[in-house]
From TrEMBL:
Keywords: Metal-binding, Transferase, Zinc. This is 3-keto-5-aminohexanoate cleavage protein. GO terms for molecular function: 3-keto-5-aminohexanoate cleavage activity; metal ion binding. It comes from Marivibrio halodurans. Its cofactor is Zn(2+). Signal peptide: none annotated. InterPro entries: Aldolase_TIM, BKACE. The keyword Magnesium does not apply.
């Protein structure tokens, strides 16, 4: 019997700049509203970043996170997943600050240092709303997204060990799966674990069906029945790769962090639009949608009563 589908919604992220879409949630109020709507539409996990309320730039400030986390918890039973990926201008310590302050059930954890190119988006933006946006994107031409073995060890110890956090292990290439296996072999990561295959980011593996199948085949070989996988397709690849993931027995991630559109040339106005769309695909395949309680049980999470917000 097929497992129910865990839908993750990544609400705002740090990849897109406000000039790319007027619908990108920026303020704590907007982030909270979008997150709650996504949960009501069927997202069991909410993957959360924060932004400066004044100009929309990515923010690591735990106080800004604290302005929307309690509201989400009060209005929804969804699992809260706080990023440790942060943004390209942040140090590793800044990237972990909000998670350390608020002790969520889950955090994202990137499994390798890599190039992470956002600069091609500049050519698609006719007018920038804020002075910081174009330099932010251009800087990724010479940017290395740092996630060393030491960084990963630190996150596993400080968040996993000290706070009981479980992780969304973000794997942007096949080598990241082998890095994950390294930590599993050392006993620093114990099953069940949640692996997010990320396809279509410039600097990572390409958004091809064959690559997705190879990622799954490799993970099956390395981890057997000890893991759950989910698929994130960047940009226009979001829904096609989600459909393939569902056909392979996987889970899916959507949201305005990963794609700003709901169809060719059509901006998504709400995160919930994408949740409803991928839910429709899943239900068309006769798949059930996992409730937050199911996600907690399958991923061995500590429970919403043990978070710090």
């Amino acid at each position: 019997m097929a497992k129910s589908v865990i839908i993750t919604c990544a609400v705002t992220g740090s990849v897109h700049v406000p000039s790319m879409s007027p619908h990108l949630p920026v303020t704590p109020e907007e982030i909270a509203t979008h997150a709650i709507e996504a949960a009501e539409a069927g997202a069991a996990i909410l993957h959360l970043h924060a932004r400066d309320p004044e100009d929309g730039r990515p923010s690591p400030d735990p106080e800004v996170f604290g302005r929307f986390l309690p509201r989400i918890k009060q209005a929804s039973d969804a699992v809260v997943n706080i990023t440790t990926g942060g943004g390209s201008t942040m140090t590793v310590e800044e990237r972990m600050a909000a998670a350390l302050a608020h002790s969520p059930e889950m955090c994202s954890l990137n499994m390798g240092t890599m190039n992470f190119g956002l600069f091609p988006a500049i050519d698609r933006i006719a007018h920038f709303k804020h002075d910081w946006e174009k330099p932010f994107l251009e800087a990724t031409r010479d940017f290395v997204f740092k996630n060393t073995f030491g960084d990963i060890e630190t996150a596993l110890a400080r968040l996993g060990g000290d706070h009981g956090v479980r992780f969304e292990f973000e794997c942007y290439d096949v080598g990241h799966l082998y890095t994950l296996k390294h930590f599993v072999d050392r006993g620093l990561i114990r099953p069940p674990f949640f692996v997010q295959f990320v396809l279509g980011v410039l600097g990572g593996i390409g958004p091809d069906r064959e690559n997705l199948v190879f990622m799954k085949t490799t993970a099956d070989k390395l981890f057997g029945a000890d893991y759950e996988f989910s698929v994130l397709g960047a940009g226009r690849h979001q829904m096609p790769l989600a459909a393939i993931a569902l056909s392979l027995g996987g889970n899916v991630r959507v949201g305005l962090e990963d794609s700003l559109t709901i169809g060719p040339g059509q901006l998504a106005e709400r995160n919930a639009d994408q949740v409803r769309q991928v839910r429709k695909i899943a239900e068309g395949l006769s798949l059930d949608i996992a409730k937050p309680a199911e996600a907690r049980a399958r991923l061995a999470l500590k429970g919403g009563d043990r978070v710090g917000f």
